[in-house]
Specification:
The structure holds two protein chains of two kinds. Chain A is mainly alpha-helical. Helices cover 71% and strands 0% of the residues of chain A. The N and C termini of chain A lie far apart (63 Å). In chain B, 68% of the residues lie in helices and 0% in strands. Chain B is globular. The N and C termini of chain B lie far apart (47 Å). The chains are: A mainly alpha, B mainly alpha. The interface between A and B is large, with 41 and 49 residues.
Amino acid sequence: MSDENLKLLKNLDKLLFEDAEEAPDEVRRRLESKGVDVKGLIARVKAAAGEAYRKVLVEEAAEEESRRKQVRGSVFGNLAELGREKLLELVRAAEAGQYGTEIMARCRNQKVENLSEADLRTLLEDMESTIRK
Amino acid sequence: MSDDHFRHLQEHANEIIPILYDYARNLAARKYHWCEGKSLPLGKSPEDIVTDVYVSYARGAGSSGKRTKGVRHFDPEKDIMLQLKGSIKSAMWALTDKSSAKKEFLATSEEDLKEVEFAPTDPIPDDLVESADFARTVSERVRNDQRIKKSDDLANLFMLFELEITEVADQARELKRNPEEICQLRYQLRQIYSEVINELNRQ
């Protein structure tokens, strides 16, 4: 008999957990009829999720920045001190494979002659960060 | 892809959150004897569970595929609601697991989905006795509910559940009703069942 009761509950549980016919609006109304502040509930959960999402993005950005700082200068030295010609020289050396195949691959399809000094510096920094990924 | 999931969660929050909360309340009441005004283990409420799960997926959407505690990722191949409900179940199970009350297992979608099948840890003998007593009391109270006693349709539907005929189509055939009518009756029976459980939990 106890087994039968347990089986019956398991069957009735389908009503609670598996019946998907009820529309979200009906669920909402049913909860509200039990005194649940559904609007407040949604606002609280959404706000918590939004905050968590933003926090993760900030953390990831900080981690990325920290990583970039760590590798900065590890391949090409202190780029801040170099002028355009020297930067161009480094890019050409990288194109020629002097700093390995990964960096050489990053040089493909780059028209470096037209790049400004700042752009060349950024390109070289990007290459440095690429090889650590 | 992850950003899309997060956007989906936020844009459809009005539909998703009430369903998840309802699921969490039902699960807490049915499986963990929770009722309004009482807390789940560690002082959590069904709303906390829904928030934790929602936040864990939000964190998963913002992070680049890391498998860390408190972070979940959607499996794009699987139904989102099923994954969310699985995670609710997993989070609640983790709370009540006596041996590891503070250790929610790092749930991937796969793990969550497995949990949906309602096969928690092996019950200890005391739990079994309690379940059997609880089942007997619930069965009796539902059977003797005045609404069921007064309605042949509800009584017949309840009998079909006793006979393990649980699908809408089968019930419609047995009771010579259309599926919409059966759904309406199921809704009423669900209300009664839910009320009986909540009443017992309050006691």
